[in-house]
């Protein structure tokens, strides 16, 4: 398996990965059915032929699905087709799948409060926060403190920083959606408390081994490993595609929990929630983003880590199409140009024509 170059340019664009495919989208139309005729990856191939350029230094894209003639993997710039790369916040969807499996096993209910299981970590003010609110980012937990600590230390430091910076604040869970990585730290710790085993072991036992995701694992590189259940995975385009297909096809979750993948809460998006179209919620109780891209409803997740911007998206229905990608943006490229590049790529892979 080919590793990515270690000397990558650092991307300093807050929220790029999550905002990339939502910029400029209007009101969400109804889902568009995929065409019956098979599609080719020609549009993606043509885009890759123009790279590298002054926006994207390197690109790796995999397009697959029942609506595609054959799986296609293409590259541009210094990245191999089988490269392992840090997937950033795409990790959250893996974490959420493990927690939803525990819901299916009745270890905990999706609308059960979290604090009784982690009373030493979750302050009493957040006693009403439920599993569902962790998953769909309506918990109103504080933002994660970026400290070089273990996951429990990160959660504790986050609550301490919030208490010091906003004394007397009364949280209002369930009222607004604000994308927040601390939800995934707590979700990972909840998995450990419910099972009595390390999160990494449960992830391997429940997801990675059953799906034969041999090139996917929690990173051992400190700068990436810090983010753990929130953003600590490394993977390949082929493994990400296999995971997304299994998730959407119901191989990981029974029907009662599968439906949570597509349940977006009926609450507004917070002003700082730049991941979604302005003022709206777009994250489901399964961790997926549901957005409308040029008239096509797509579901997926994005992430940034180690200088790479990655993502997985798919259409649903009988002609499901999927894309898994990672891009290394040029350090001098404008944020809008980078957002446009991601939107163009996902559209080329998934949009009807």
TrEMBL record:
Q: What are the UniProt keywords, alphabetically?
A: Signal
Q: Could you tell me which SUPFAM superfamilies the record lists for this protein?
A: beta-lactamase/transpeptidase-like (SSF56601)
Say which domain of life the source belongs to: Bacteria
According to its UniProt record, what is one Pfam family this protein matches?
A: Beta-lactamase
Q: Where is the signal peptide?
A: 1-19
Domain annotation Beta-lactamase-related: ranges: 57-314
Which PROSITE patterns does the record associate with it? BETA_LACTAMASE_A (PS00146), TAT (PS51318)
List the protein's name. Beta-lactamase-related domain-containing protein
